Amino acid sequence: MKNNDNIKCAAKRYIYVWEAPVRISHWLNFLCIITLSITGYYIHNPFIHASDIIETTYIMGMMRYLHYLVGVIFAFSVMLRLFWLFVGNRYASWHSFSNPFRKEDRKTFFAYIKYYTFLEKNPPHTLGHNPVALVAYIVLFNLFILQIITGFALWAQADPNSTLYALTSWVFSIASNQWVRFFHYLMMFLIAGFVINHLYSAILFDFKTQSGEISSIFSGWKPERNS
Amino acid sequence: MGKLDNILKEYGVSRREFLKYCTALSGTLALSPAFAPKIAEAIEDDNRPPVIWLEFQDCAGDSESLLRANRPTVAELVLDYLSIDYHETIMAAAGHQAEAARDETVKKYKNKYICVVEGSIPTADDGIYCCIGGRSAVDILKEVGGNAAFVIAVGTCAAYGGLPAAYPNPTGAKSVKEILGNKTVINLPGCPMNVDNLTATVVHYLLFGAPPALDKFLRPKFAYGKRIHDNCERRAHFDAGQFVEKWGDEGHRQGWCLYKMGCKGPETFHNCPTVRWNEGLSWPVMAGHGCVGCSEPGFWDTMTPIYRRLPNIPGFGVEATATKIGTTIVGISAVVFGVHGIVTAIRNRGLVRKVENEFEDNE
Known about the structure:
The complex is a heterodimer of chains A (227) and B (363). By secondary structure, chain A is mostly helical. Chain A has one domain: Transmembrane di-heme cytochromes, Chain C (Fumarate Reductase Cytochrome B subunit), CATH 1.20.950.20. Chain A has nine helices and three strands. In chain A, a hairpin with a 4-residue loop joins strand 1 and strand 2. In chain A, helix 1 (20-44) runs antiparallel to helix 3. Chain A is elongated, with a radius of gyration of 21 Å. The two termini of chain A are 24 Å apart. Chain B has helices at residues 3-10, 15-28, 36-44, 61-67, 74-81, 95-108, 137-146, 155-160, 176-179, 195-208, 221-224, 228-231, 235-239, 250-254, 272-275, 284-287, 299-302, 322-347, 349-362, and strands at 51-55, 84-87, 114-118, 121-122, 131-132, 135-136, 150-154, 173-174, 185-188. Chain B has three domains: 3-220, Rossmann fold; 228-303, Cytochrome-c3 Hydrogenase, Chain A, domain 2 (Irregular), CATH 4.10.480.10; 321-362. Chain B is elongated and about 110 Å long. Chain B is an alpha/beta fold. The model of chain B has no long low-confidence stretch (mean pLDDT 87). A five-stranded parallel beta sheet of chain B has the order 2-1-3-7-9, sandwiched between helices. A two-stranded antiparallel sheet of chain B has the order 4-8. Classes of the chains: A mainly alpha (227), B alpha/beta (363). Chain A: Keywords: Cell membrane, Electron transport, Heme, Iron, Membrane, Metal-binding, Transmembrane, Transmembrane helix, Transport. Chain A: This is Ni/Fe-hydrogenase, b-type cytochrome subunit. Chain A: Residues 17-220 form the Cytochrome b561 bacterial/Ni-hydrogenase domain. Chain A: It is found in: Cell membrane.
């Protein structure tokens, strides 16, 4: 953990919270998830009828190509963020995870739970992730990893002699082909549900704590606040 | 030139037809056509092993497939000549005579004969749900299969348990491999299996003295190494986004892709589109019906519903599709956070006023 404290912007009393790789990964994830969801839904249910729009086309082929290409970018983006868990600053590091064996961490965690359930008005201020949101992110990244593994496994089926298939075919010993497809599809909705939560919570805390929740994911800087 | 030559002559199969057949087999096995003479030699060779064909919990569909081997007709003759010493459905002998014939073959050709198994094996209640000559299926399979050179499980039931093993599996049906753990088992799933693949597997053994290369589900790679979807003649329509929307609609008549009708071609590994059925005449998708994925493990449990893309979730009612459940999840989260937002806005009215007042004070 880099402990030599926060880089401060002296004039405005701002703190550099989100480093470039965190922001890049965040926005890459955002773009990838949008593209993957749309193309993925199309692959599940090809709702555009080719002959309705143009005469000669390759629409499903294009959707699949886009889905695979963006899937690869997404995998790298998630890997970048996971890598930054170990080399990033204190806000990006795995050190910011709540430790359930520490009384202080438990207290902060439950203070936020109480805030979310209207039992408390003013939760303690945290500059990085709030501990409840952090749990959601851990769950989310596990969903990402599952999506990536199942996605690549399904892709690899095009060629059972490929290296990719050798790496991922163990998935089909756990669940049959059809259930892997099913979960790959259903997890998209879980992620969509998270996006709603994520947008709402970001706006909520941007307003509540006045600490630049929204702007900081563009700029990286958050105003210094103590309470 | 052995006895086969005479038999072929007797049935009116010319030498030319026989060699054509050998070339077709080399194609099925994904071998070079140069192998055709070697295949002919291997088939004509007199050291061909006898076959014991066992039937357990089955519909005799694979036997039917065997009997209708007709591309070219020599397939049947070859398999006949393989001296199927025991086959309940088609053998002339009955009762104790039949059992004696089987026991004799097992003794005489120990570790040399081929055991073909059709149907799943019930294990519940000591296997009483399938007994032949007073012995349970498990018992017979262990003896006959255990002493064979190798075992071929034909059809989805023998390969993966199939229909009898589908939920709730009252007879405790199991696949051949589950009973004969250590034995070399080759799975030729399908409902029924395509007899060309059986012939090719046997011929591969005659030719190379070893079973063909198998995938992780013990299926020969030459037959199950590619997806139906990737060899389908309707594939171009899939890529082009041209789909059948309703049975008998314009797209259906045009031969468009059956993906939206629940075709399981993208999930199924089989050589149906290339080997086909009935003298290579047609196969289900060519005939206008989507693939049902009959040769995949867990066929009955996970490939249903046949006319939908994804399985139903148990416990959510029959009609609960993945999309419905997914949109419900999204809807619930939208409602929960919407309500949370409204409550927060009401609770924060005081804060807003305070901030506004401070702002005005500062001015």
